[in-house]
Amino acid sequence: MPEGVQVQGARSLWDVFDHISAGCSAPSIPATLAAWEDMAAQLRAKLHDALGVRPLRPIEPVVKSLGTTHFTGYSIERLSIVSRPGFIITANLYLPSALSDPAPAILCPHGHSGQKGKGQEKYQSLYIGLARKGFVVLAPDAIGLGERWLQGHNGMASPFLIGTSLVGMEIWDNMKCLDVLCQRPEVDPTRIGCIGNSGGGTQTIWVTALDQRIRVAVASDATTSFRYNHAKERNICFCNLAPGLMGHAEMHHVLGLAAPRPLLLVGGSLDKMFPWDLQRSVFRQTKRIYALYGAEERIAQFISEEPHGLSRKKREAAYAFFLEHLMGITDPEASIEPNDVQPLAPDDPALICYPSKPPELRRSLDAVIRQEALQHLADWKPPKGKDEWRAFRQQKGRRLMSLLLRKHVASSLGIPQKHSILGHDPSKAQEVAIWSDPFTPVLGTRSQPTGSVSAARLIIDSDGRHSDWSQRMLNEAASTGCMALAVDLRGWGELRARELSEDGAEDEWVAVQKGLGYDVPLLGLRLQDALEALQWLKDQAGDIHVELYGRGLGAVIALLAGVMNDTANSVYLEHLPASLIPPADHPRRDFVSLCAPNLISQVGDVVHLIGLLAPRHCRVVSIMPDTQFLWSEEKAVAPAWACYEAAGAPEALCF
């Protein structure tokens, strides 16, 4: 660390987001219904866009019945629902016995219940209790949970790259489940409710906000302040993250999108995840929106003196609410759960749709995202001719800037602050600190040749500036007459945060999650660091040839910096990931830092970014092991070659 520079690794990753949070407030609730409905329309559009609810090529759900098991008072039908090509929802449909007329139906998304999924015992008690009171109940497994375990759930950030999200995909699955309910002859489509607990409560909030077919909603153990949750959580599941939402809404705004439909908020005063005072505050704020409709009586809150979890008291509060608003029954006795409700074992054959997992259930979410990424990139073709190519490249560059280098972030931070602190180590290499923002310096080691300087080289390795590779590149540069600067970008090298885990992986995740909430991707902050370091090096070296060297995830930053800054004359990439989308079970959890929203869908994947360097020299020395191109390698690199051909410089690209 350069003399006089003191930086805590974790703080270098997190302080910038805390600063952004302090200057980012949710809008106030409008004073009139007309003003609220205008805000609500804009918020719905924002949510659809930010969450990426609708797939690029949506399909009608394909439903297959896999058998029915009968019990006293109800039956369970096992369903398979295809919600998007090659993507299966496993679900249980609970049907009351002896239905004579179409009945009200309840969609029941579940929370984080691991491999139990829809079979978790308290959830089963809810489904059975509702069915025995005359409701048709559809209980689907969430993405990567229950029977869909192999699809993957935790850590699934890759959907952001193609303009969707795990939240948006879950909402879409729930909408397809609503399609199924509306098509069933046993269901009255004008009387559909939705209930979920914890993560299922969050799903209930989202789908109710965006789908008017839900007439009554109950969200259990899910209400809090977005900002509180974002600040306190150290490992938010990506199914709770909506990119950029912090600058547009609080939870009461999203809950208010349900108005004037009946809404019950259920919680526990002993819930350590969702403090009861915040539960009450969210309820009061949401009730103000209901008041604009003159519908205060349609929103209610039930808080029991219990911890997190769908207890019998909470289930009975939900029964009473659904009975009143979907059946017109207000008798308190009707809401009591029968004492003989007996959930099955989660792996009981009556619940399991596929005892032996078919290929569709073994297909990971990353594989689905890869397939949808191919659809986005199918028409990615550079124009022919140098003039057209330059215009195309400028257009992609502007889009890249808007995705990664947010102007509102720079203005809110008061950056850049261009100054440095220099010191000397015993080897006479200069230690440098270049301040990219008020919180985080880029730490660098600069080597200088003894004679004249022929070129300047910026070296970026995700393993840090003291890695063997970085040191080798520094020594090589000095021997060939290059001034070189090897850097630690935020979260790497000496700046690696180790507050949550020794290897810094957990801290990296926290930074990615915080950044997504404020639409400030960690990838963009690192790119900003690299561009500041590049400018500093350029200022030191003068008007000479500039080289960018990158390795590992640092190769992606070097590539992006080359695209964004034309002063880089050549780019050398080692251990470059073949794609921004990680393969399933990739051992490096920090890969998640590459997942910036819309980067693939609106700009391109790694090979497309390489193409945007044309006509400058680019050499890809090696590809990171265990990473995969979207296509076969020959086909995958074709866009890069096409760009260099369009720029009239095919000889400048070397794979």
Keywords:
about 650 residues, alpha/beta, Rossmann fold, 2 domains, nine-stranded mixed beta sheet, 21 helices, about 20% strand
Number of helices: 21
Q: What structural class is derived from the secondary structure elements?
A: alpha/beta
Radius of gyration: 27 Å
Order of neighbouring strands in the sheet with most strands: 1-2-3-5-4-6-7-8-9
- Here the CATH topology of the largest domain equals Rossmann fold
Backbone shape: elongated
Count of domains:
2
Look at the structure and give the CATH class of the largest domain.
Alpha Beta
The helix content is 25-40%
Indicate the proportion of strand residues: 15-25%
Produce the secondary structure layout.
Layout: H1 9-22, H2 33-51, E1 62-71, E2 74-84, E3 87-96, E4 103-107, H3 121-132, E5 136-140, H4 166-183, E6 187-197, H5 199-210, E7 216-220, H6 226-232, H7 251-256, E8 263-268, H8 276-292, E9 299-304, H9 312-327, H10 359-362, H11 365-377, H12 386-404, H13 407-413, E10 420-424, E11 430-435, E12 441-447, E13 455-461, H14 468-479, E14 482-488, H15 505-517, H16 522-541, E15 545-551, H17 553-564, E16 570-574, H18 599-602, H19 606-611, E17 617-620, H20 633-636, H21 638-646, E18 653-654
Parallel strand pairs: 4-5, 4-6, 6-7, 7-8, 8-9, 13-14, 13-15, 15-16, 16-17, 17-18
Antiparallel strand pairs: 1-2, 2-3, 3-5, 10-11, 11-12, 12-14
Give a brief description.
The chain has 21 helices and 18 strands.
Describe this structure in words.
The structure is a single chain. The protein is of the alpha/beta class and 655 residues long. The chain has 21 helices and 18 strands. The protein has two domains: 346 residues, 3-Layer(aba) Sandwich (Rossmann fold), CATH 3.40.50.1820; 243 residues, Rossmann fold. 37% of the residues lie in helices and 18% in strands. Strands 1-2-3-5-4-6-7-8-9 form a nine-stranded mixed beta sheet, sandwiched between helices. Helix 1 packs parallel to helix 15. It is elongated and about 90 Å long.
